[in-house]
Amino acid sequence: MSGRPTSRATPRAGAAATGRRAARAASRVAGALKEEDVRALLAHFEAERRRTTRRGAAGAELRRWQDRIIEREIPRGASVLDLGCGNGELLHTLCRLRGVRGQGLELDAAAVMECVERGVPVLQADLDEGLKGFSDNDFDYVVLEETLQTLHRPLRVLREMLRVGRHGIVSFPNFACWQVRWGLALEGRMPVTGRLPYRWHDTPNIHLFTLQDFLDWTKDEGVRVVKAFAFAEGRARPLRPGDNLVAEEALFFVAR
Amino acid sequence: MRYDARVSDDLTIRRKPRPVDPPDSPASVGWTRSRRVRLVDSGNGFRLETGRRFGPIDVEYETYGRLNRRRDNAVLIVHALSGDAHVAGWDADAERAGRAWRARKPGWWDTVIGPGKPIDTRRYHVLCANVLGSCYGTTGPSSVDPKTGRPYGLRFPVVTVGDWVRLQARLLDHLGIERLHAVVGGSLGGQQALEWALAYPGRVRKCLVLAASPRLSAQGLAFNAVGRFSIMSDPQFAGGDYYAGPAPRVGLAAARMLAHITYLSEEGMQQKFGRRLQDKGRPDFNFGIEFEVESYLDYQGRSFVERFDANSYLYITRAMDYYDAAHAWGGGDLVRACRRVRSEMLVVSFSSDWLYPPAHGKEFAMALCRAGKPVTYVNVPSTLGHDAFLVETEPVGRLLRGFLS
Predict the structure, then answer these.
(1) Of B345, B375, B376, B405, which to mutate for an interface test with A (greatest number of A Cβ within 10 Å)?
(2) How far apart are CA B38 and CA B25, in angstroms?
(3) What is the arithmetic mean of pLDDT over B291-318?
(4) Is residue B361 part of a domain?
């Protein structure tokens, strides 16, 4: 399973169709709101999301909001292991701007090739096979962006992250955000949104969970939340109470 | 064993015809001439890993592409068991030097080396040297011992991968190249590339290890042992002093046939030959060549004895057996050995390679990672077995190009 599937491929046409479907459904139920208004609202969110990201070096892909926070938060000269590093864009930037010692891990052959071409060290390996080759505290930071929900054994990987690294950085789509709830409640179908662009049968996301689920886990496991951010209402900002309803995605800095 | 000329050359390329760049192609380095230099004279000699001193030593090497003014664009290619310094282009001296097989095809890695190719000779100064103990111009058991006037035979000293690399370093000193942009090798060449990164960490910027691992497995040792047994039990072997008479051709051919099985994969062999009969509709019910795969091995064995020396086969497989990077540089601890590395490392394995299996390549990459070294490990999907490092030109070419730049 390749890393970051939710952000790697964003089938715009599919998202637009879903937007239209959601808008129709919403106007049917809400009555008061015109279909056009709802569509405009959704378009506004999408435009806001795009505004907050910029085009990556490859030109084709949108840069993730998480990357910019991670680039800001990771201290100069740190060592970083990026699990499911995709085409290596984050590590490339971290190495260039922050002088970190970066190491990627990725399974997808095409993404690995891109890493090689941009000079990012990457190990082609399956995260679900674990991190048993690494020793304790090999890295200052272990990053897992938009991948946790694709893993067969997500908790094992989380625990391994916090063994191999002093800090874990985890981001994931929040299945409890209002767009998802709305789609599910009103349409009665598995929601397809900009952040969750797949249909039920072709999604790599096999362990969907919510922001609250993750917070519960940190409590149960005694994991410390060092910092947390949310992507909500079209922009990235520090996590706030009530974000379980409004945050489309969350980003956590955790430690043992 | 029969040595008729019934089997054509194309058998080996039947399923995947590989286009060859002729000498006048803009993608070829063109006609090449190998050079030979006496790096060690007979006086003090070259101190071998075994402690013995040996000399004189001549080294045959080839170069393509210009060395730039800063002398920092050299890429050293290190060859495998049966390889030579003629890595790209067409040997202008093939017939004259008694190497007729070279007139029929370009150097052994011509697919990736040349103008515009992944190892671009417009950008890099590419060099390759034949290893000590081989039979392609560098001093080996078939060379004449100046003390006796006869070929060394088994009086030639046992040599190691470490010796080869130290001798290559001497060649670079001779050529005035302090630091390599990269060292690249596959199989036994991959082990030399790794040895470069360990023995001369300051002299290698990038190190590319293909289809190799820091040591050969027990299974690999076993195959080498049977190959040597086959050579040494050939009645014509004569204790290694066969140069005046017939060579131990059958023994060497059998060793090569056995080795060739380890270079392919079960799946690859099935795809390439299946159970097809060789040029016939029904079996002859005898012990001649019945199946295509038999014919292939027969061809491999036969063509090999035309171009390789049996004693060299013994010495080179022994060097391959002895190599153990963890033992040599880390007291048995591979992670400790890897701490020496200062080069950027690329480790490539091939999914169906069972001589140097992917698990071993990955284990090596993990050891580098645990030693705190940035490393890239790629497992290329292929049905072509160990041979894939030479044949999977497309993915290997992309990796080479991407990693070198």
Answers:
(1) B376
(2) 33
(3) 97
(4) yes
pLDDT tens string B112-131: 999 999 999 999 999 999 99
The string of pLDDT tens digits covering residues B329-344 is: 999 999 999 999 999 9
Q: Residue B1 falls within a domain, yes or no?
A: no
Helix, strand, coil percentages for chain A (3-state, nearest 5): 45, 20, 35
Both structure tokens of A117 = 């071409």
For B396, the closest chain A residue by CA position comes to: A113
Eight-state DSSP code of residue A63: P
Whether chain A has a CB inside 8 Å of the CB on B370: the answer is: yes
What is the spatial distance between Cα B153 and Cα B150, in angstroms, rounded to a whole number? 9
Q: Do B402 and A121 count as a contact with CB atoms less than 8 A apart? A: no
Query: Which residue shows structure tokens 């939710």?
Result: A6
Residue B354 lies in a domain: yes
Helices of type H across B203-309: 218-232, 249-263, 266-272, 292-307
Contact between chains at B374 and A133 (C-beta distance less than 8 A): no
Q: How far is CA A20 from the centre of its chain?
A: 24
Can you tell me whether residue B78 is helix, strand or coil? strand
Q: Where are the domains of chain A?
A: 5-255
Q: Which domain holds residue B114?
A: 9-404
Q: Are B81 and B187 in contact (CB under 8 A)?
A: yes
B392 lies in some domain: yes
Type of residue numbered B3: Y
A5-255 CATH pick, 3.40.50.150, 2.102.10.10, 3.30.70.420, 3.30.505.50: 3.40.50.150
Give the number of other CB atoms < 10 A from CB of residue A103: 27
CA gap B165, A87 in Å, rounded = 35
Which residues does chain A have with pLDDT short of 70? 1-63
- What the block records as the tokens of B257 is 């046939």
Q: Which helix (H) or strand (E) holds A98?
A: helix A89-98
Residue B284 tokens read as 């002859």
CB atoms within 10 A of CB B166: 18
* Residue B209's CATH number: 3.40.50.1820
Inter-residue contact A250 to A65 (CB < 8 Å): no
pLDDT at A7: 38
- Report the alpha-carbon distance of residue A177 to residue A179 in Å, rounded: 6
CA–CA dist B4, B126 (Å, integer): 38
The ipTM estimated for the assembled molecules is 0.89
Q: Nearest CA of chain B to the CA of A157: how many Å?
A: 17
Cβ distance of A123 and B346 shorter than 8 Å: no
Q: Are strands B90-91 and B344-350 parallel, antiparallel or unpaired?
A: unpaired
- Token pair 């740190």: residue: A78
